Amino acid sequence: MTQTATYTVEAFVEDVRAIFASTEDPHAQAQGAANHLKALLAVPGWLEEKLNIPGEGGYGRFELHLDEEYGLPGPGFWLMCSIQTDGQESPVHDHGVAWVIYGVYEGAIEQSKWRWFYKGEGVESTQIKQFGKFIQNDRTVAFFLPGEIHKTLNVAGGRSIVVRLESQKLDRITRYQYDPIDNSVKVMNR
Ligand SMILES: [Fe+2]
Fold this sequence. Notes:
Layout: H1 9-22, H2 26-41, H3 46-51, E1 60-67, E2 77-84, E3 92-94, E4 100-106, E5 108-117, E6 127-137, E7 141-144, E8 149-154, E9 160-166, E10 176-179, E11 184-187
Antiparallel strand pairs: 1-2, 2-9, 3-8, 3-10, 4-7, 4-9, 5-6, 5-8, 10-11
Helix pairs in contact: 1-2
Fe (ii) ion is lined by residues 93, 95, 100, 150.
């Protein structure tokens, strides 16, 4: 069970495995894992210790756990860390049939949500548009269910450290990125 004072990344992984073992419902999985990730983010220092993160810089992507037994839609849930430069942004993208939880360990990112708008919704033709956004500060989590479209932007004014849990490692999944300028869609590579 989650105990904030002594919670570890290893215990978190076990909690996520238990969730996958107990339910096949994507929303229940994501919500349950997000609650545990929030507890993990509240523990100071665990990530620096795990990855030897320097006080400044250290940019890049780092693996924390790849699970070959559990995941959605198939085995291979992945816990990783992304250390982002100021202003770093993703394309507008989805996660295919996987869900993803974003946890901010340090800094702040803007999460914008996007969807297709159709005739009758104030557009002349079908187009991909933003319909909402929020700032995700440190020690907070946000999850995106299969099919949801979003974009992230580091708004910390410096480094942001983001811990991400993918229900199946996204390079095993077909997913898409969207260009809001010409409304084109293409398979996303990583
Ligand atoms: Fe994403």
